[in-house]
Design brief:
Number of helices: 11
Number of strands: 5
Order of helices and strands: HHHHEHHEHHEHEHEH
Strand order of the largest sheet: 3-2-1-4-5
Helix content: 40-55%
Structural class: alpha/beta
Shape: elongated
CATH superfamily of the domain at 76-214: HUPs
CATH class of the domain at 76-214: Alpha Beta
CATH topology of the domain at 76-214: Rossmann fold
Distance between the termini: 29 Å
Length: about 260
């Protein structure tokens, strides 16, 4: 129920969708006796689209997420395992075209391979089923094996968890693969790390965060740029993650509202 509800609510709340619906409804009302209301809605939608695509609102929101956990500069001499979250491979396109189809988060996989080589004795876990509401037939973990060989990693070292549909299930279903006293590294995108760490802590798994796949720089530049598609995509991603933090906390799936380096922070 939680999985379906979260997908439906996000479809309704996504900024790009809301702006589209507001603009479309306003234009339609222009052809009715509620023309004044239509003009107001269309004008409001247009002004908001201009604002969020000219001003770096999404980048600012994204940077707050990415800066929550610092990039790792010093790694321990020994780790027992490394777990990487899925979300970097399009499983349906991979099957359709017969080759690995990577998305926006490929750094999760390349850094996973690099750490696997650094720690040749560490156990390796890839966790990822499918996060799409209407397509549960093809799992990311079931199609990714050829990629490891392409980037020089022995696929036989890796354990796969292919039933998870969201971040909480990534943590919950991967947890039995580790013992409480072990040291594990968690790899996911920097903007996603707060929610991921909160979920892993919630299931009783203390883990070393290794954020990757940065979308913003170290310093925030308040630049003006007419890039509607890019700015809307950035805003969508940032709002999705902030709403995810709130929704997960309200439903008891993270240990705090905005998990940080210290537990309960």
């Amino acid at each position: 129920m939680f999985f379906a509800l979260s997908k439906i609510l996000w479809w309704l709340a996504a900024p790009a969708n809301l702006l589209f619906f507001l603009l479309a409804a306003g234009v339609l009302l222009l052809w009715t006796r509620w023309r004044r209301l239509g003009r107001g809605m269309a004008s409001a939608a247009t002004l908001m689209i201009v604002a969020v695509t000219v001003l770096p609102v999404g980048s600012w929101m994204m940077q707050q997420l990415e800066d929550r956990f610092p990039a790792v500069s010093t790694l321990p001499a020994h780790v027992d395992g490394i777990v990487v979250l899925g979300g970097a491979v399009n499983p349906w396109m991979t099957v359709e075209r017969g080759q690995i189809a990577l998305g926006d988060h490929a750094e999760r996989l390349t850094e996973f391979a690099a750490l696997a080589r650094r720690y040749p004795d560490a156990r390796l876990v890839f966790t990822g089923g499918t996060g799409y509401l209407t397509r549960q037939d093809i799992k990311e973990a079931d199609v990714i094996a050829p990629l490891w060989e392409q980037i020089g990693l022995d696929a036989r070292r890796i354990q796969y968890e292919n039933q998870s549909r969201n971040t909480y299930e990534n943590a919950l279903l991967s947890r039995p693969l580790a013992r409480p006293d072990e040291t594990w590294i968690l790899i996911t995108s920097a903007f996603h790390m707060p929610r991921a760490v909160g979920c892993f802590r919630k299931v009783g798994w203390t883990i070393l965060p290794f954020p990757v796949d940065y979308k913003t720089g170290r310093s925030f530049a308040f630049d003006f740029s007419l890039n509607p598609a890019g700015r809307l995509m950035s805003l969508n991603a940032a709002v999705h993650e902030w709403l995810g933090l709130i929704f997960y906390r309200l439903t008891g799936k993270t240990d705090s509202l905005f998990p940080g380096p210290s537990p309960k922070s």
